[in-house]
Write a structure and sequence with these properties.
heterodimer, A: 278 residues, mainly alpha, Hypothetical protein af1432, two-stranded antiparallel ribbon, B: 174 residues, alpha+beta, 60s Ribosomal Protein L30, Chain: A, 5-stranded mixed β-sheet
Chain lengths: 278, 174
């Protein structure tokens, strides 16, 4: 398997910009565009979301998760759920539908299994990123949630194209990390019309340099990625698995420690990642 | 092109190898690559001065009259204390960060496996002995850490990309 040539071909395809998302993600893309409209009305949004059962279900389950519903008052109506979540979270959920559908783009069973594992990792990172933004880096939690949801789009695209290159996903993918992932990721995020501040955070993620203590949106993403209990299956293929040896990571934030904040927020993270995965 | 941590144009970069030490001010970025070794950064938040060490072991039977050797934690810390005093400051005014101490010998000799954790613990004790606040640490695990410390801002940038068994691509330390 010539990994270098295969990755170069995938990068070239992505750079040409002809990324096709599954047809049933069309509504999610329309929701994103509607959210960009300054005159966007909740009624119109509600009708559009109701037309996409997966998105509608996700909106309700996230609105009822501990992260958005600490008081435990359950909502069953879509319009109330939209009001509770706000437009920024809705944007993230629409993106989650698209990213989630990207895992169905693979034909081979083993590739779909890899993509499913990558989605599990994504859900954990998104949930952690939201908590870290709120409690540690003091960034916008919705932006962090969104960034977490889209942070592996490059790898989802790689998996979706893997059947054209037999043996690729069982090869050493060390070459993928760094410029390869970044170049494909940029192309996919452009097709998803992702805002500039999310792209900046992604550049920090791809650079791999975490500020200690973490402060920016990019740091939020890097930290969430590192702390996620579910690793990216692509990291394991690149010989980057860290499962065996635990890192001790501690930061003082005002008068608290990172580990105490994460321990307090464990339930919130679990509820949000479960709602996203479900 | 993937963005690296931003730095002003006129930055002087000092690369620390194992056993090296640097203390200074101004637009200086200190960089190093760590395995089981440990680096401590000390930074004075008001005076914007500070330094970094890169030690390999905890201590030794030091020959009489021997100059401090930065390969040993106890002597690297002595170098710190000398510079702190020379700058007219006190150790407790500094903020510390601690990095490294990875397990680089997984599956190997058990003695070698403990080097990283011994280095970490010793570093924590040294800082504690002088009441220096430990603001952040990223230690243990497996693999190499790349580190940049910007003295002008006190920022530390850490890259921890490689897992167990990964090759060193551009090593300049231990």
């Amino acid at each position: 398997m010539d990994v270098r040539s295969a990755l170069a071909a995938i990068e070239a395809d992505a750079a040409r910009g002809d990324i096709v998302f599954p047809t049933h993600t069309e509504i999610a893309l329309r929701v994103q565009r509607l959210l960009d409209d300054p005159d966007c009305a909740i009624d119109a949004l509600g009708k559009l979301i109701a037309a996409e059962p997966i998105l509608a279900t996700r909106v309700l389950s996230i609105a009822n998760s501990i992260a958005y519903n600490p008081g435990g008052r359950s909502i069953t109506e879509l319009k109330s759920a939209i009001s509770r979540l706000g437009f920024a979270t809705l944007r993230a959920l629409a993106a989650s539908i698209i990213v989630r559908q990207m895992k169905e783009m693979s034909k081979a069973e083993e590739h779909r299994a890899l993509a499913a594992k990558l989605w599990e990792h994504t859900a954990h990172v998104a949930a952690l990123a939201r908590v870290i933004a709120k409690r540690v880096t003091h960034q916008n939690p919705d932006a962090a949630f969104f960034a977490g949801i889209v942070h592996e789009v490059g790898s989802f695209y790689l998996i979706s194209r893997a059947s054209a290159f037999p043996g690729l996903m069982t090869s050493d993918l060390e070459l993928w990390h760094g410029e390869g992932e970044a170049s494909v990721g940029r192309a996919v995020l452009k097709a998803l019309e992702v805002p500039a501040h999310i792209l900046d955070a992604m550049e920090t993620l791809w650079s791999g340099f975490l500020a200690m203590p973490p402060t920016s949106l990019g740091d939020t993403l890097l930290l969430a990625d590192e702390l996620s209990p579910i690793e990216s299956p692509i990291d394991a293929l690149a010989g980057m698995s860290r499962k065996e040896m635990e890192v001790e990571l501690e930061v003082l934030i005002d008068d608290e420690t990172l580990s105490s904040i994460l321990a307090e927020s464990a339930e919130e993270v679990a509820s949000l990642s479960a709602a996203l995965k479900g | 092109m993937i963005a690296k941590p931003h730095a002003p144009d006129n930055v002087k970069t000092v690369v620390l190898g194992a056993g090296d030490f640097h203390f200074g001010s101004g637009h200086t970025r200190i960089s190093t690559l760590l395995g089981s070794c440990v680096s401590i950064t000390l930074w004075h938040p008001r005076k914007h001065i500070g330094g970094m060490c890169h030690y390999m072991m905890t201590e030794r039977n030091r020959p009489p009259d021997a100059a401090p050797d930065g390969r040993y934690a106890s002597e690297a810390f002595e170098l710190f204390l000398q510079h702190v005093e020379k700058a007219g400051t006190r150790p407790s005014e500094y903020q510390a960060k601690l990095f490294g101490g990875a397990n680089m010998f997984s599956g190997g000799k058990s003695g070698a496996m403990e080097i990283g954790s011994r280095n970490i613990e010793y570093g924590r004790k040294l800082l504690n002995s002088r009441n220096i606040a430990l603001m952040a640490e990223h230690v243990a695990g497996s693999g190499r850490r790349k580190l940049h410390f910007d003295i002008w801002s006190g920022d530390v940038w850490l890259s921890f990309p490689e897992g167990e068994g990964a090759e060193i691509r551009n090593g300049y330390g231990g």
